[in-house]
Amino acid sequence: MSTNLTAEAQIDRVRKLALALPRTTEKLSHGEPTFFVRKTVFVMFANNHHSDGHTAIWIPAPPGAQAEMIAEAPTVYFKPPYVGVKGWVGVELTQIPDDILLTLIRQAWQLSAQKSQERPRR
Fold this sequence. Notes:
By secondary structure, this protein is of the alpha+beta class.
């Protein structure tokens, strides 16, 4: 696992995985790196957000998965502020290996890409 990486190294880790996916862009949102597929967010980086102690990402999860993930591994997953009520999950980056992180980021990308295609184009 990547427990000894700095926050900057953690964002580089996330950036490498997220930007490898098609139609992905990175922008600052609320002062943190945020990744979009088309115009839909699929990964938000959170570095000690409001002093919560997490170096994490916030990602959408499939319906019903948030509670299951948190119950199964509460040191890895948590309910993030703001988007947690929409089923998103926080992922503590210091507690997760690259292969699982890649799987979670791909899944978030797929959920968001599908959502962005459902929206009417302006």
